[in-house]
């Protein structure tokens, strides 16, 4: 739901979780379809940890048998065999190299009530033999430029992408993010992190919920710092994307994964 929730979160119970990169123009419900701006197709194998979930969300392989996604993408915790995880492809219509595995269990963040704590784990019936994405355990990497990727809507109120799209967005500090007012006044600073351009134009959108926001660590390896959560529309000026601050929940996520 992402982006239009808090009005709409960026998943796909109301939308979806992939990359919405929209043209720079005033955005409203009646805006004409805009071409993709600022984003490009990811190459096959570029982000092998990316997962597309059948409920219309994204995710990343936390382990080869556990997907890290957003809490708002799932309905509570417990046994669950209704979700299919697709991995190994950038083109959702390609069968070459595609791996599809059903879920067995879901663990939604304890205490999740729609604000903050927007993370969840999905255990798969069998491991997916692809690289995993490590998560940040400290706030060290919660700054700089981040990579976002997904199969979500390519414009606000649009439709999802067949191909995995990627883009780069800059960190927005909490004071600036809250200063945009409206929905952003309710930012949970200790649990959420903002990223995007003041002018808008590049963003995640519906269908990208649950997907990772990541960057390179000091060793040059990808590390996840955020989970696509919500925002005010998609790629609007002064309306950055809001992401679950992974480092805040790193120990809780590790404990939850061990319990699965």
TrEMBL record:
UniProt-listed SUPFAM superfamilies: Trypsin-like serine proteases
Key words, A-Z: Disulfide bond, Hydrolase, Protease, Serine protease, Signal
Native source organism of the sequence: Streptomyces sporangiiformans
Protein name: Serine protease
Protease keyword on record: yes
Keyword Disulfide bond: yes
Domain called Peptidase S1: residue spans: 36-258
An example Gene Ontology molecular-function term: serine-type endopeptidase activity
